[in-house]
Amino acid sequence: MSLLRLASYNLHKCRGLTGPHAPERNLAVINALKPDIIALQEVDFRLGARPEALPRRLIRDATGLVPADMTTTGENSLGWHGQTILMRPDLADQAVLRRLPLPGLEPRGAVVLRLPRLTVIGVHLGLARSSRRAQLARITAQAARIADDNIVLMGDFNEWHDSRGLESLAGFRVIAPGPSYPAPLPQFRFDRIAMSQHLKLLKHGVFTGAQARDASDHLPIWAEIEQP
């Protein structure tokens, strides 16, 4: 059996709870988590030219992973709408990435990573539930057209409720591994993974190692699946 370890992590611009900017802490968390694929949110600063908060030059040496090859928000940005996906280099050689603009009250977008037997969609949904509903409806409709049956959607859903706002995911298995926000004393399950019903889930959890409670305001979540 071949396992695939997936993860999602909101970096909070690598500032911990209050600063200073220290991306080495986040990279240590990712390295200890040892994902094969990880969807990241808030990898860029929001103001001005939106420069990268997670320096791309440090990623491979610190984690062994590489960022998805895509057109980013700007020349100095790592991600698109603050999001990127890191993966093992051998997976990156096979990957095709596209960007999916999303509706809502604020600019948002999903990052779609297509591999030969799996499609991973990274998300950071809006603050308003009406926006989140519209965004998930767009994502699921597009996924049905551009992906095969092996789909994993993961990221910061910004949804505290276990069912409201997630209606468009009725055809998916939705996993909220546990409270992941705020990191020092987690109470809300904002970070989730949704996957095609037939994909085999082996394990899942919220990661607290490598001083993750200090590195961001979110804790990373993870899941192990049987590789399609």
UniProtKB/TrEMBL annotation:
Q: What is this protein called?
A: Endonuclease
GO molecular-function terms, A-Z: endonuclease activity; exonuclease activity
Is-annotated flag, keyword Hydrolase? yes
A Pfam match is Exo_endo_phos
Organism from which the protein derives: Paracoccus sediminis
Residues annotated as domain Endonuclease/exonuclease/phosphatase: 7-218
Q: Which UniProt keywords apply?
A: Endonuclease, Exonuclease, Hydrolase, Nuclease
Q: Which domain of life is it from?
A: Bacteria
